[in-house]
Amino acid sequence: MNNAQKPCIICVAITGSLPTKANNPAVPTTIAEQIESSQEAFEAGASIVHAHVRNADETPSSDPEKFARLQEGLEKHCPGVVIQFSTGGRSGAGKQRGGMLPLRPDMASLAVGSNNFPTRVYENPPDLVDWLAGEMRTYRIKPEVEAFDLSHIHQAVAMWRDGRIAETPYIQFVMGVRNAMPVDKHVFDHYVETVRRLVPDGEWCAAGIGAGQLVVNEWSVAAGGHARTGLEDNVRLNRETLAPSNAALVERVVEICERNERPVANWRQARQMLGLAEPELAV
């Protein structure tokens, strides 16, 4: 299947742990707002929802009960959508980051190495990475490897080859975090070549942060990969205009797919490409 024929999976990162309503009133922070925003994005063309949860004061939370309520709402209002929970470091410390994994979401993010963020080190020590990967194997959750660096791609492949990642890895390039990997086309092209060489049957995605979101969406769709968008990564479309909603950002990726003559994957196609079982839907 060539790039023009291959359906593009759109992942929407609805909330994250940093943007607040002070940044943009469109950011959904309560469970009810997250469900509503996810439904709009799902109907616009997203087939994966990447989710964090928040406390009442909008600070990040690792509370499994909140994740359970969000999961229940997504299953009800976005039937078939791929639910992907974040195990990122802002929502908790150590094994708290994986406290929601017994809920058995379809996917969960997995950072396999550390790197610098603007004001802190994003710590992913080997013992924690191995524990999170082990929990994902136990609960049959597909990891979405978040690669902030070339070494993270190689580490994910090593974990797959030695069995710490059970299935063909799904790797997402994260570009544009300050102090980490910038939005650079030569680097992007090398990432794509590396994944294709080391995991020839694997699927890959790319996420651009801040002002890099649009350009990375364009590169990824044109190169035959999948695309992540959403208010977590880019509160502002540009310096003057606030992004109106997650659905609007999904619609923008749909337009990029249309220009590149690529179909947008529906949830069944996304699950097939990612090797995920179809859920039992209520009749």
Percent strand equals 15-25%
Write down the secondary-structure element order: EHEEEHEEEEHEHEHEHEHH
- Mean pLDDT reading: 94
Unreliable stretches covering 5 or more consecutive residues: none
Structural class: alpha/beta
Q: How many strands, which pairing sense, and closed or not: the largest β-sheet?
A: 8 strands, parallel, barrel
Number of helices: 8
The assigned CATH architecture is Alpha-Beta Barrel
In short:
The protein is an alpha/beta fold. The chain contains eight helices and twelve strands.
Report what the structure shows.
This protein has 283 residues and is α/β, with parallel strands linked by helices. The protein has one domain (10-274): Aldolase class I (TIM Barrel), CATH 3.20.20. Helix content is 35%, strand content 16%. It has 8 helices and 12 strands. The chain has an 8-stranded parallel β-barrel with strand order 1-2-5-6-9-10-11-12, surrounded by 8 helices. Helix 1 packs parallel to helix 7. 48% of the residues are buried.
List its traits.
alpha/beta; 16% strand; 283 residues; eight-stranded parallel barrel; TIM Barrel; two-stranded antiparallel ribbon; globular; 8 helices
Q: What layout of secondary structure does this protein have?
A:
Blueprint: E1 10-13, H1 31-44, E2 48-51, E3 53-54, E4 60-61, H2 64-77, E5 82-85, E6 107-110, E7 115-116, E8 121-122, H3 126-138, E9 142-147, H4 150-161, E10 170-175, H5 185-198, E11 204-208, H6 213-222, E12 226-229, H7 246-259, H8 267-274
Parallel strand pairs: 1-2, 1-12, 2-5, 5-6, 6-9, 9-10, 10-11, 11-12
Antiparallel strand pairs: 3-4, 7-8
Helix pairs in contact: 1-2, 1-7, 4-5
